[in-house]
Write a structure and sequence with these properties.
The chain contains twelve helices and five strands. The chain is an alpha/beta fold and 254 residues long. A five-stranded parallel sheet has the order 2-3-4-1-5. The protein starts with a helix and ends in a 20-residue tail after the last helix.
Amino acid sequence: KQILKDICNCVKNRHIVMNEWNFASKLPYGAGLTVLFAGPPGTGKTMAAQVIANELAMELYKIDVSQIFDKYVGETEKNIRQIFEQARKSNSILFFDEADAIFNKRIEASSSNDRFANIESSMLLQCVEEYSGISILATNNFNVMDPAFIRRFKYYILFREPDENVRYEIWKTVIPKEAPVSEDVDLKLLARQFEFTGAVIKNVVLHAAYLAAEKRQAISMIDILVAIKREMFKNNLILTKEKLGSLGYLFEDI
């Protein structure tokens, strides 16, 4: 949270540092703000970018990196230039999602395709550095990153999977106060029993709410467990009686 505040404060105080204190004369390029978010899916990288945009009252321009890179020579460079031209006009925050393609450790250029891939990645990173606004790049796989890339970012945040206490806070806050919840719902037990990310918890609660709304009843523990079962199935996981722990007695009902 403190790093996110620092990023926002950096933007708010840029005029003082760059203009009044004349740091711009020492930075011929690279006066923009480059931020790297790394961590598993569903841990809040996109949400953090939205929080920054909301705090600064700026638009968030989300870009899927896999859509930029084109198999035809020259097309990728054109796509990259177009993105930054549009961003300069709108003064948007650029958010590069799924940026793993950029961060793969430098490929040994054994073919012309590999050489072009290296050139394209370097060009994108150069444009990010030279962009005068805010650029946020997010990657799910920190381990594939070339360490030389990390130093090119002014701010770096590693998002971790939530522990039990944080999971409990997420369970509490993701349910609106207007939503009716049955007395049998034990959020502390759910937080302890299921090691879910914030994104999964949100999906489970929303699914459970629709199940309850269809029955015109309050959200019950059964609704939540049915939603958990289906969410786990989406991720090729099976909800067994053992995984339910002390809730195992409800297994036959879901």
